[in-house]
Design goal:
This protein is α+β, with helices and mostly antiparallel strands and 202 residues long. 25% of the residues lie in helices and 12% in strands. A 3-stranded antiparallel beta sheet has the order 2-3-5. The longest helix is centred in the first third of the chain and has 19 residues, at 17-35. It is elongated and about 75 Å long. The two termini are 37 Å apart.
Length: 202
Amino acid sequence: MAAHNVIVVNRDTKPGLGPVLRGMAITFKNMIGTVLGKSLATVQFPEEKRKTSGRYRGIHVLTQREDGTPKCVACYMCATVCPAECIFIEAGERPERLIEKYPTRFEIDLLRCVYCGFCVDACPEEAIIMSRENDLVGTSRAELIIDRDRLMERGKVVEYGPGYRPQDHDVRRPVRIAALERLRTEHGIVPAMPAGVEPARR
């Protein structure tokens, strides 16, 4: 995939007065644009929100089925692959044959989270995605440990919109395979591998 808007910097520029004057001209041009209000560099936060990418890794959202139940099947893939170990899940059984388990408890400690997106990559159900919100504030540690119900309610926050969620191509595959191998070697759990992948033998 070709990169867009890439600026190539010429490192072979000879030192002297010319590069300094060109740099000062750019600075002066931007200053004039800011003073005249044509290209303001500041955002009046919190009244104004900065535009973020559709792949922004913000605060997590737990997605729901049509009946309002969480899509999560408590497979522990996200908790297993998480490098910060900030996800805690407790599973319960559901009466349906097609959905064996669901999370009775699902918590993310945002003070430990590094917002890497591995949990999103590892999830086989797309039950967890990331939003574009990055300004959640709490006055205590307990407020920043988000439970299952709060994570599901966050899906209604339309102001920010969905962020990072691998849907155009399967970038999740290597992370899912690594998480499955860790489940097998460290915990003795052997769930189904992605199609066409043989588990490593030792």
